[in-house]
Amino acid sequence: VTPTDGTVILRRAEPGDHAAIADLHARSWQAAYRGILTEEFLSGEVHEDRRRVWERRLAAGIPDHLYVQLAWQGSLLIGFVCVFLDFDPEWGALVDNLHVAAESKRRGIGRELLAHAGRYVAAVRPNSPMHLWVFAENLNACRFYNRMGGTPVEHTLRAAPDGRMLPEFRYLWRNPAQAGSQACDAL
Ligand SMILES: CC(C)(COP(=O)(O)OP(=O)(O)OC[C@H]1O[C@@H](n2cnc3c(N)ncnc32)[C@H](O)[C@@H]1OP(=O)(O)O)[C@@H](O)C(=O)NCCC(=O)NCCS
Is the dihedral of CA 17, 76, 10, 70 positive or negative? Predict the structure, then answer.
């Protein structure tokens, strides 16, 4: 499959994927968090910050509690979702990151990745809810999560990667298997 072929393939991450994920993660933060995180962070340490995080998460082997699903178009990584199982006794699995490359947005890839994550959580932890944090100012992502059947259950200040405290929403899926499903669209 070449990058010009529109076919999108989803697969679980492997240790060798850490650099490609870090690169997409940093570029997505630069595009989506401009005006939310400081310009200094976004134009400076963001690449090194994400490189360190993904090397630590994946390079030495992927632990059992970590689920990372990738979307590829040919040799281009165009999206990923990362979930930590058993993250919180009350709120369950944490969707720590969900990103789709700017050029590939609004093609249903975010929905597909979130639905995969939800089905995985439901399969391996049948009674676990699933949650995530999103910057309150990230209106596009909030609209997306509303559409995916998530419920905003908490609004609080949290430490952001640029060192400031920023308002965030906690979104919850009590039934992760339904995240992103058509049934949620009717809500
Ligand atoms: C949020 C994000 C993951 C959504 O992924 P996506 O692949 O573009 O979303 P999808 O195409 O699956 O969207 C499914 C539905 O969600 C809703 N939606 C998605 N993006 C939306 C937006 N910007 N505004 C309003 N609704 C939106 C729509 O109803 C859409 O269906 P439609 O295109 O048929 O109208 C993606 O925009 C992204 O990576 N953003 C930057 C990074 C980010 O903010 N991540 C979240 C961090 S918490």
Answer: positive
Residue 64, token pair as written in the block: 């059992």
pLDDT, tens digit, 9 for 90 and up, residues 111-151: 999 999 999 999 999 999 999 999 999 999 999 999 999 99
Are the beta carbons of 121 and 187 closer than 8 angstroms? no
For tokens 């697969």, the residue is 11
- N- to C-terminal Cα separation, the chain: 37
- pLDDT tens sequence across 96-119: 999 999 999 999 999 999 999 999
Kindly list the protein residues whose Cβ atom lies closer than 6 A to any atom of ligand 1. Answer: 28, 32, 98-100, 105-111, 134, 138, 140-141, 143-144, 147
In the chain, what percentage of residues exceed pLDDT 90? 93
Cα(118)–Cα(122) distance, integer angstroms:
6
Which ligand 1 atom is the nearest neighbour of the CA of 109? Answer: 7
Distance (Å, whole) CA 114 – CA 130: 11
The answer to pTM > 0.70 is: yes
